[in-house]
Design goal:
The chain is of the alpha+beta class. Helix content is about 25%, strand content about 20%. Strand 3, helix 6 and strand 4 form a beta-alpha-beta unit. About 10% of the residues have low confidence.
Length: about 800
C-alpha cells in the first residue's frame, strides 16, 4: 500500500466491497475507468432480469394490463429515486438523453419567433448544440461558463416571449458540477418574477450527473430533465427518459401522433383526432420497449442491495473519493528535472464534492514539457487492460475552452483533415483532445492504481532517451515528410547507422558492405489468415489483382460475424498456415495441436456467409465470404479456447476496394487498408536502437532485430542504405511490377505483441510516438497496378528495387 493510498477513505465497508467485486467478476483482470461513457451491469442484476423473463409472460402493454402495471411501477420508481411524485413530474420514455433533448427542441412552444429565446451553456454536450438547428425561434444565444456562474443569462428584456435555457448538471468533460440554484434564478429572472408569472423554462441535461449523483427534484425543480439509464445501470441500453414538470407540460406542443397516443382519429382528409390526456400517453408513440423498461426495476434493486442506505449519495461520495485520490496521485508525479508529468483540465482542485464529480481529465507531458498524444496513452492503456476514454467527449465547448483552441484553429484542424474521433491527437504540438478517467460504483482503488502505475512505468519512471534535435520541437502531422528528412540527415551525418550481422536467422538481415543505391527485396511475407502467422518466402511469389496471392484471404470470425484479431486474442500469432497448391490445401498448425487441412478453393455454391469482418472505422466493410466448414471451426474452438468460431474465405467475386488508394478501383483482400505493407530493415534497426530499455533476446542483437521486424507484419521487407527514407518514396518498381505509395501506416498496439510468443509489451509503440512527436507511423502502404481477374505476375526476392521519389 502506497502512502497516498493510506490516506484514502473508502465509502464502502469490507463486506460491501467484496459483494460488489463478486458481482463484477468479469472485470477481475480489467480496469474499467469509463463510467461516464457507460456503467457496467452487475451479475445479480442480469440474473434477476433473466429469471423474470423466463418466469413471466410479458405482452404488448396495449394488450396486457400486467405489463402496463409494471411499466407504471417503473415510472413510480424513477420518480421516487429523484425524490418527487407524479403530482409534480411525469416520465416520458425515450431512447436516451439525446432523444429527450431532441423532443424538447422539437415541441417546446416558442410563442413568438422574434421575441422568444433559446439559450444554452457553451460547455454543453453536442446533443444540446444540435437543438439549435430545430428550435422554432430566431433568437439563439450561448452563455459562457463564467457569465453563467455570475448569473448573467444574456436574456434581454425585449425578448419577453417564452424562453428555454439548457445546461448540464455535470460537465461530462471534466466532472464540474454546475450550481443547480441557477434553475430557480433563471426561471424567476433572479427574483424579479414569480414562478407562476414567469415564461422562462429550464431543461437540465442530467445524463452525466445522475450516473453517480443524487438529483433531488423536490429541492431543484427544472422544467425538463434528460437522462439515459445505461449511464446508471449499464443495462438496458437504448432507453432514457424525459422527466417533465407539470409547469413544463404546458409548453410542449407535439404535432405527430402514433399508435396508442390518441383516443380516436378519422382516416378521412379532415385530420380529426383527439389525443390522450396524460402527457406520457400523448408523447410515447407506438409500442414502448417494455421488456427494457421492466428491466429497470432490477437495476434499482441491485444498486439498493449492493450499496444500502442512501445509495446514490454514497455512490457519489465513493466516485468522488476515488477521483480525488487519482488526481492527487497524478499531481505528485514529477520527472527527474522537476517538471510535471500531468497537465490537468479542471475547474476545481477536488476539495469539495459539491462542485466536482468522479472525473479526472488530463494529458501526459514529456520530460521537456511537450504533450504526449492521447492516442499513445490509449494504446498503452489497452495493452494493460485499462478501459478509458480519449478525445473531446462530444463536448466541444469545454474541450475548446480548456485546451485553449480558438474557433479559427478548430476550422484549420478540420481543413487539415482532423475530425472528431480520429487519431490526430497533436497538431503543431497542441493536443486536439485529452484523456478522461471516470469512476463509478464498481470502481476500486486497484483500478486507480493501475492507471497511475501505467503512467509511471511508461513515462516518468524510465530513463528517457534524448530525442534528436530535429524532433525536439513540436511538428504537426502535415510536416511529417520534413520531419523524416531532418531525422535522416542528422542520423547519417553523425554516422550512427549500422546494421547487424544476422547469418543464422531468416530473413538474412546482414550488414551492407557498401552503402550503394542498390536495394533488394529481402523477404516476402504472406499472411493467408488475417492476424495469424505468415508464410515466409525467400524466392518467388505471385501477385494478382488483390495483391500477394492468398494474402489475407481468410479470416476467423466469432459467432457474431466480427473478425477475431490479435488485439483481442494474441494467440492468433501462433497459428501457422501452410499452402500446398499442388494438393489444393491450406494447413493450419498450432503448438501441441494436431494439424488441420482445408481446400484452398471451394465452390462458390458452398455455405456462403455475409459477415461484418471488422467493426473498426479503418476496415468496417462487409465481406461476401465462404464458410470453411465444421472441422476447421472445431479445431479453432479447441486451440483458441473460444466457442463459436468460424473460418471464412473471401469470395473471389467480392468487390472490396483499397482505402486511400491512388485508384478508387483498386481491389483489396482482407488487409486493413492497402494491398502491400513495406518495412525497411534499416528503419527497424534505427528504431530498435532508440528503445531505452529493451532487453535483447538472449543477449543476441540479431534476434531482437528480427523480433522487431516481425512485429510490423509487413508483406515486403527491404533493406535500404538509409533508415526512414522509404517515407519519401512516391513509387517503387520491383522487377517488372510498379507499386505506388499510398501513405504511411498508422500503428496501434498490435506492434507491441511478440509474434513468437503472443506476449504483450509496451514497445516499440512508445518509442515511435516519442521519436515522431506522437504520430505513430511506421512502414508505408503500397498498391500495385490494376490487373484483370486472370492475370498473375511473379515477384522475386532476387529483384532489385527502383525508387521514384
Amino acid at each position: 500500500m502506497n502512502v497516498r493510498q493510506k490516506n484514502y477513505r473508502s465509502e464502502y465497508s469490507t463486506d460491501e466491497q467484496n459483494c460488489i467485486e463478486h458481482n463484477f467478476q468479469r472485470l477481475k483482470d480489467i480496469h474499467y475507468l469509463d463510467h461516464a461513457g457507460a456503467a457496467q451491469y452487475a451479475d445479480q442484476q442480469m440474473h434477476q432480469i433473466y429469471s423474470n423473463l423466463i418466469s413471466n409472460i410479458h405482452c404488448n402493454p396495449h394488450t396486457s394490463k400486467f405489463t402496463g402495471d409494471l411499466i407504471d411501477q417503473v415510472r413510480y420508481k424513477i420518480l421516487k429515486s429523484f425524490n418527487t411524485t407524479s403530482d409534480e413530474y411525469s416520465i416520458i420514455f425515450t431512447s436516451g438523453a439525446t432523444a429527450s433533448l431532441k423532443l424538447v427542441a422539437e415541441t417546446f412552444w416558442f410563442d413568438n419567433a422574434s421575441t422568444s429565446s433559446f439559450l444554452y451553456l457553451r460547455d454543453n454536450h453536442t446533443s444540446v448544440l444540435g437543438m439549435r438547428e430545430i428550435v422554432k425561434t430566431k433568437n439563439i444565444c450561448y452563455i459562457e461558463r463564467d457569465d453563467f456562474l455570475c448569473g448573467k443569462f444574456h436574456n434581454s428584456s425585449q425578448h419577453n416571449g417564452n424562453s428555454l435555457f439548457v445546461f448540464p448538471a455535470q460537465c461530462n468533460f471534466n466532472g464540474f458540477k454546475y450550481p443547480l440554484d441557477a434553475i430557480h434564478r433563471f426561471q424567476t429572472n433572479s427574483g424579479s418574477t414569480s414562478i407562476e408569472e414567469s415564461n422562462r423554462y429550464v431543461c437540465l441535461d442530467a445524463a452525466a450527473f445522475v450516473s453517480t449523483n443524487y438529483l433531488d427534484l423536490n429541492k431543484w425543480q427544472p422544467d425538463f430533465v434528460c437522462i439515459s439509464f445505461y449511464k446508471i445501470f449499464g443495462y438496458p441500453t437504448g432507453l432514457g427518459a424525459l422527466i417533465v414538470s407539470k409547469r413544463g407540460e404546458q409548453m410542449l406542443n407535439k404535432q405527430y401522433y402514433g399508435g396508442g397516443t390518441v383516443k380516436i382519429s378519422l382516416s378521412n382528409g379532415s385530420g380529426w383526432h383527439r389525443k390522450r390526456d396524460m402527457i406520457h400517453e400523448r408523447f410515447e408513440d407506438g409500442t414502448l420497449p417494455y421488456l427494457s423498461i421492466v428491466s429497470l426495476l432490477f437495476g434499482f434493486e441491485t444498486i439498493e442491495k449492493l450499496i444500502p442506505g442512501q445509495s446514490m449519495k454514497r455512490i457519489s461520495q465513493h466516485s468522488f473519493n476515488l477521483a480525488k485520490y487519482l488526481y492527487e496521485c497524478l499531481n505528485e508525479l514529477r520527472y527527474s528535472n522537476g517538471r510535471n508529468v500531468i497537465h490537468f483540465y479542471h475547474d476545481t482542485d477536488f476539495k469539495s464534492i459539491d462542485n466536482q464529480g468522479g472525473i479526472v481529465n488530463f494529458n501526459v507531458l514529456h520530460e521537456d514539457g511537450r504533450f504526449v498524444g492521447f492516442s499513445q496513452v490509449a494504446y498503452m492503456a489497452q495493452l494493460h487492460n485499462i478501459y478509458l476514454r480519449t478525445g473531446c467527449f462530444c463536448n466541444p465547448g469545454a474541450c475548446q475552452r480548456k485546451l485553449r483552441l480558438s474557433d479559427e484553429s478548430l476550422k484549420a484542424h478540420f481543413e487539415a483533415g482532423h475530425i472528431c474521433g480520429d487519431n490526430n491527437d497533436l497538431i503543431d504540438g497542441i493536443p486536439t483532445g485529452s484523456v478522461r478517467i471516470s469512476t463509478g460504483y464498481m470502481t476500486t482503488v486497484k483500478n486507480i492504481d493501475a492507471i497511475v502505475s501505467l503512467i509511471k512505468d511508461c513515462f516518468c519512471n524510465k530513463e528517457r532517451g534524448k530525442n534528436l534535435e530535429s524532433v525536439s520541437k513540436s511538428i504537426s502531422f502535415q510536416n511529417f515528410d520534413l520531419q523524416l528528412k531532418q531525422i535522416m540527415s542528422n542520423e547519417t551525418s553523425k554516422n550512427q547507422f549500422k546494421l547487424t550481422n544476422n547469418n543464422n536467422i531468416k530473413p538474412k538481415i546482414q550488414k551492407r558492405k557498401s552503402l550503394t543505391n542498390a536495394i533488394k527485396l529481402h523477404e516476402i511475407c504472406v499472411y493467408p489468415i488475417k492476424s495469424c502467422a505468415p508464410i515466409r518466402v525467400d524466392s518467388t511469389w505471385m501477385i494478382n489483382r488483390r495483391g500477394l496471392k492468398y494474402d489475407r484471404e481468410w479470416m476467423i470470425v466469432r459467432s457474431t460475424g466480427i473478425a477475431l484479431t490479435q488485439k483481442s486474442d494474441t494467440k492468433l500469432c501462433l497459428i501457422q498456415p501452410t499452402i500446398n497448391e499442388s494438393k489444393n490445401t491450406l494447413s493450419l498448425s498450432f503448438p501441441y495441436a494436431k494439424t488441420v487441412e482445408i481446400p484452398l478453393r471451394r465452390d462458390v455454391n458452398d455455405n456462403r456467409v455475409i459477415s461484418s469482418f471488422c467493426q473498426s472505422k479503418v476496415c468496417a466493410d462487409r465481406i461476401d465470404g465462404i464458410d470453411c466448414g465444421e472441422e476447421v471451426a472445431k479445431w479453432l474452438d479447441d486451440v483458441l479456447c473460444i466457442s463459436g468460431l468460424r473460418l471464412i474465405q473471401q469470395n473471389l467475386n467480392d468487390k472490396r476496394m483499397a482505402k486511400n488508394s491512388v485508384s478508387t478501383e483498386q481491389a483489396i483482400s482482407l488487409s486493413n487498408q492497402a494491398q502491400f505493407l513495406l518495412i525497411n530493415v534499416a528503419s527497424v534497426d534505427w528504431l530498435t536502437k532508440k528503445v531505452d530499455d529493451w532487453i535483447e533476446l538472449d543477449n543476441v542483437p540479431e534476434k531482437l532485430l528480427q523480433n522487431t521486424v516481425d512485429r510490423f507484419r509487413a508483406n515486403l521487407i527491404i533493406e535500404s542504405p538509409l533508415p526512414l527514407e522509404e517515407f519519401e518514396w512516391k513509387s517503387i518498381r520491383i522487377g517488372s511490377i510498379k507499386l505506388t505509395t499510398t501513405g504511411p501506416c498508422m500503428r496501434c498496439q498490435m506492434i507491441c505483441i511478440d509474434q513468437s510468443t503472443g506476449e504483450k509489451t509496451t514497445e516499440p509503440l512508445q518509442t515511435i510516438a516519442r521519436e515522431f512527436n506522437g504520430k505513430m507511423r511506421f512502414g508505408i502502404y503500397l498498391c500495385g497496378e490494376q490487373l484483370s481477374d486472370d492475370d498473375e505476375r511473379v515477384i522475386s526476392c532476387d529483384d532489385y528495387i527502383e525508387i521514384n521519389k
